[in-house]
Design a protein that fits this description.
single chain; mainly beta; 5-stranded mixed β-barrel; 5 strands
């Protein structure tokens, strides 16, 4: 089984060992052939507490860690300037 990976931006880090990452996907509309941007928010497990709001991160799918948390932080691609 191949694990899924995504790249997104941290939008919340107020929970203990959990952050919310927003991932934007660009898809083509089937009927109108227009590019649409969809945003999905994932609860991500962060053991080291080393990320902040605005950071660009890579996440991967894992076993269920809680009711809503099925993703784990792989690495930080770019730190936020603020």
């Amino acid at each position: 089984m191949d694990t899924k990976g995504k790249i997104g931006i941290v939008v919340s880090d107020k929970m203990e060992q959990t952050c919310i990452v927003a991932v934007n996907d660009r898809i083509m509309h089937k009927r109108y052939s227009k590019v649409i941007t969809r945003t999905k928010r994932y609860a991500v497990h962060d053991q080291d507490l080393n990320i902040g709001i605005g950071d660009t991160v890579r996440i991967r799918e894992t076993r269920p860690l809680s009711k809503t948390k099925n993703w784990i932080l792989t690495d930080v691609i770019k730190k936020s300037s603020t």
